[in-house]
Amino acid sequence: MTELPQDNLTMLSLVKEGGELEISLARLPMPQPRDHEVLVRVLATPINPSDLGLLVGAGDVSTARASTRDGLPVITATIPPAGMRAMAGRVGEAMPIGNEGCGTVVKVGASPEAQALLGKTVALLGGAMYAQYRCLPAAMCMELPVGTDPADGASCFVNPLTSLAFTEVMRREGHTAIVHTAAASNLGQMLVKICASDGIPLVNIVRSAEQVALLQGIGAKYVLNSSAETFQDDLTAALIETGATLGFDAIGGGKLASQILGAMEVAAVKRMKTYSRYGSDTHKQVYIYGGLDLGPTTLTRNFGLSWGLSGFLLTPFMAKAGPETVGRMRKRVVDELTTTFKSHYSHKISLTEALNPNVLAAYNAKRTGEKYLICP
Amino acid sequence: MTELPQDNLTMLSLVKEGGELEISLARLPMPQPRDHEVLVRVLATPINPSDLGLLVGAGDVSTARASTRDGLPVITATIPPAGMRAMAGRVGEAMPIGNEGCGTVVKVGASPEAQALLGKTVALLGGAMYAQYRCLPAAMCMELPVGTDPADGASCFVNPLTSLAFTEVMRREGHTAIVHTAAASNLGQMLVKICASDGIPLVNIVRSAEQVALLQGIGAKYVLNSSAETFQDDLTAALIETGATLGFDAIGGGKLASQILGAMEVAAVKRMKTYSRYGSDTHKQVYIYGGLDLGPTTLTRNFGLSWGLSGFLLTPFMAKAGPETVGRMRKRVVDELTTTFKSHYSHKISLTEALNPNVLAAYNAKRTGEKYLICP
């Protein structure tokens, strides 16, 4: 094992009182693992939309300017007043970033479970992954097979567990098919494979003909282009055919969630024998789990009174689902890491490159088909 | 007992293919009770917003014109094309109206439970109450104490059971306080009394200073005027104080549901110890149970990811709650009919008066403080 450096280069995001966002690299002291902990050299860590929520938040990246401090890059950007209200809780606190990652265990504490991981490739969940090293409890590491490519192990948690969670929610709430938006994403492609293998009808909604081709190429049966003129009719036809009454929406803003609920209602009314002024009594549910469009959500409420729209977040779902379900989900992720749960990265960048304003603007655009991996 | 007439004057609502709404009075044959049924002379039946959904639906009452047929009044109005799509399921079927009512049992079937009701004053639920007589199973009647004023017995179901259901939902979902909009309504006043007696903190939202005075006059503690400039701050303060994370909204359209969820989130974040980019993990729920504003609902989603917005309807709630709960709720309604559940009617009209276009326009406006009772 090579000698460890004294410092641990770490990315920090700071919201300043005056309405300024500062993203920087800092030399923090190298952490020392306690008995139950391991020190991991981070080899790959993805930039997920949820990471950008913490890294950039309400900052206006079009105002980003680069500088340096102690020879390390710094980005400064303006936060509009409305954004500052939303970020009031984190003013003055330089926060580390990065939900998940993959790396090699280079130093361990005295406990047997920590010792057992020395030299192993592990997947990590727990924040602060945008750093060269991360020290955390052995229990928060998931051991990966020998020879796993760190790029494959970097996204073991957020997308794989979220896409699996969608099917768990479906079963728990008594639905039999799923609608998914922004479906050409890495997560969407995983969901296509899960549903194909589990026999779950999945209606994929994407925003371009290229994305239709992409998903059909991996075997998706229902792929609808929301920018097509026939979209609402196509959606209704797919919902009549599949009977899907559950949707997961990564977009959030605009009318899409409302369109989905409306089409579900048309499909449900078609199955009814008698007219009811209240619409169908079929419960229709859409979960918003992302905010690709941060604008307001508009609901026309032309879908009766048996409907729900809710936020969805993986962590509280897993807490509710319990350790047995979560254990089963995790096992499936490891078993199918290079097949179902294979992530595709369009760009691999260093920590320093991540602090280039042009690169920041590119990954902050969250374009479907573009996914960034940081190799610290 | 007086001789029964041959005909039963009944109000009907018909949507015609060409986009026309026709509301009429018709002489239907007098029904004859079967063994388990009773025939009730309807003495009082309220016009609830849910009745207007069936009576008027998407019809444009500003186009209403009066005529007569066989000496009985007819109203005709235009239905805009968008409205016709929503009403496609009922085209060509003349539908009777009126969810609930109160009357005297004038004729009964052979079964003991039907016989037991002869001459009694009963509250009725089951549609087709806008008529001089209603024949229905004895089991669908709720016997009222001797001497009950039909006006008091007319609204035994919809408003009393809905307001009680709000408190049942609160307990079932683990909330401890309630927010209610359009709170000066008959239903809102019942809820004020229920919550006062049950010790449930209730945040009432109304739209004018007069309504604030009205609710304070019956002992409401938190009454907020949504047209006041300080509304959002007032709401946040009330939610911090009460900890309410459950709302029932009769308005539906506009930003109010979003404002409530946003204020709940500010209150929840105030209780948090550490910052989370996802907002609080306190689940915040608003149910839309009415549509006083039929326009779109706009959600700014500045309330984290732990939230839900759903439709609410009494009937599926009661089916889910089960007979024991519903029985307890009904008993309370009868016990407190002239106190907690006393309805106030601003206008009493006949079936014929209900078919005057000016009167129709007035009750269809659903103004808080104005409530119509039909005495057939």
From TrEMBL, chains A, B:
Keywords in alphabetical order: NADP, Oxidoreductase
Keyword match NADP: yes
InterPro entries named in the record: ADH-like_N, ER, GroES-like_sf, NAD(P)-bd_dom_sf
Transmembrane portions of the chain: none
Listed SMART domains: PKS_ER
Matches recorded under Gene3D superfamilies: Medium-chain alcohol dehydrogenases, catalytic domain, NAD(P)-binding Rossmann-like Domain
Domain Enoyl reductase (ER): 19-374
Keyword NADP: yes
GO molecular function, one term: oxidoreductase activity, acting on NAD(P)H
Protein name: NADH oxidase
Species in which this protein is naturally found: Candidatus Viadribacter manganicus
Lineage: Bacteria, Pseudomonadati, Pseudomonadota, Alphaproteobacteria, Hyphomonadales
